[in-house]
Amino acid sequence: MFLNKKKVILVISISSLIFFLNFNHVRSQELRVVDGDTIHLNGEKIRFTGIDTPELKQTCVKEGLTEPCGVTAKEILIKKIGDNKVECINEGKDQYKRTLAECFVHNKSLSSYLVRSGYAFAYRKYSKKFIKDEDYARLNKIGMWSMNFEYPWDFRKNN
After folding, report:
1. 74-132 per-position pLDDT tens digit
2. Is there a smaller number of Cβ atoms within 10 Å at the N or the C end of the chain?
3. How far lies 90's CA from each of 19, 55, 94, in Å?
4. What global pTM score does this model have?
5. In terms of Cα–Cα distance, which of 53, 109, 105 is closest to 83?
């Protein structure tokens, strides 16, 4: 009987240790926002699928004033993530070997949020998923839709 109690205590101790280590690993994240549609999450470079945000050097013009719309897109993403855990659904790799994924905070799509905020565009070349979000932002003149801007894919081609 004594030997069985020792085994039970050992199994419980090991199980508790494994649970604690796994729980701690899941809860902690190493996250860096690169730009409006790219993050580094636990050492992995992730590009959001289906959207395109302005480049960091890209500007827009509103009422004659130049605004750093690329920087603003990054700041909106940083603010939306805050101290929350980011979860991503892997959708493969791109030609640059980045992981392509849709990422979420509290089960809400960061891509959808950025497009509805007017600081990302539905990247129709690759996906039709965020067109309704873009239509909402465009019709309501939200974010870049209230400014003069160049689409990110045109900006990259021209610069």
Report:
1. 999 999 999 999 999 999 999 888 999 999 999 999 999 999 999 999 999 889 999 99
2. N
3. 25, 23, 11
4. 0.81
5. 105
